[in-house]
Design a protein that fits this description.
420 residues, alpha+beta, Beta-Lactamase, Phosphatase 2c, domain 1, 6-stranded antiparallel β-sheet, 12 helices, PPM-type_phosphatase-like_dom, PPM-type-like_dom_sf, phosphatase activity, Phosphatase
Amino acid sequence: MDRLTAVERALRAAAPYGLLDVVADALRQHYSAVDVQLRMADYGVRSLQAVGADAGIAGEAVDAGAAGEALAAAPSAEPVLIHDSPQGRAFGAADPVVVPDLASGTVTVHIAVSVRGDRVGVLSVTLPESACEGELLPELTYLCEALGHEIMVAERDTDLYLLARRASRLTLAAEMQWQLLPGRSCRRPEFALGAHLEPAYAIFGDNFDWSSSADHLTLTVTNGMGEGIDAALLSNLAVNAVRNARRAGLGLADQAFLADQAVFAQYRGAAYVSMLLMRFALETGRVEVVEAGSPRVWRMREGKVEPLGFDAQLPLGMFEDTGFVAEYADVRPGDRLLIASDGVYDTSSKAGERYGEAALVRSLTANRLLPAAQVPRAMLRELSEYRGVTPLDDDALVLCLDWYGREDGAGGAATRDGLP
């Protein structure tokens, strides 16, 4: 049995809360590793948080009483900034980041931990310089993908990795909203997408959701009215109503209709939800759209950015038995779509000037070389700088979709320029 298989088997056999210890032991045994650290990206995607109190001491076991002392004594267990660290560079880079230490004769390799294109953290492995040869980097990259999948499965049975993602305490409403989200990014041969919400630790009512099959990608972007628990409950009802209708095999207009009925039955028009529903045919790039409220779509094609206008239909839950009609558009290989909630373009600067659509278009153009998974965070950082110290009074949601298409589809040959 080769060493790659040995480590992968050890991961699969590990207890949900013991993945770090098992992978550290296996990497020491099979790769001569001298230190192993696992960090998870926080909800705001600003820092990488160490997993477990003993994350900075190579996975060695410590008793419960010594755990706090170990954390305090190990500088490596402190959070590191994504935008100012080698770990952060690895989180956003296509390849591992290698940092040699000539004094100790070691090399530290930082590799992104991902789940089907969704980057969730970074594994840092320190090895003797003599061990860095052959297929080391491809093997470690593969192991980090396996680790990502095991973390996703383990989160059903332990809070350890969810706790590591928190740079501060979540509000109850934010807790409810984050549990509803599918992830931060997704990638398939036909497309790549990424999305992000701010403020991450006190979300109001915005939400995004996606689901892909062999033939379709379905996206929904939700803007629920209100704030706090009321907004979270409203968004949960609307999103789960749409999911229920989608999983019953209904078309997009019927999904909107049944979600509309569910919200109206509960709130009788006193509360409603704006929602954009889109379903992409992976074979052809044909897009079915139901726009029921405020989330808006911009398309970048051959360097030109323009809004995609659809008939603005009533938000979900405003009136009883509202009918919805689907519209159609097309995307081509190389197109980039951006969806933003009103919390983005309605944000005001300290001087009271509205951010507006023109600034959003400039930001989309300026970030055109970034992969889709990184665009939402980059745009929301710019929005934060524009806002200054003024706190957000509404959610700001950005979703970016890069369309590659299929080589045998009607849209022509596919192109890919995102992360591998």
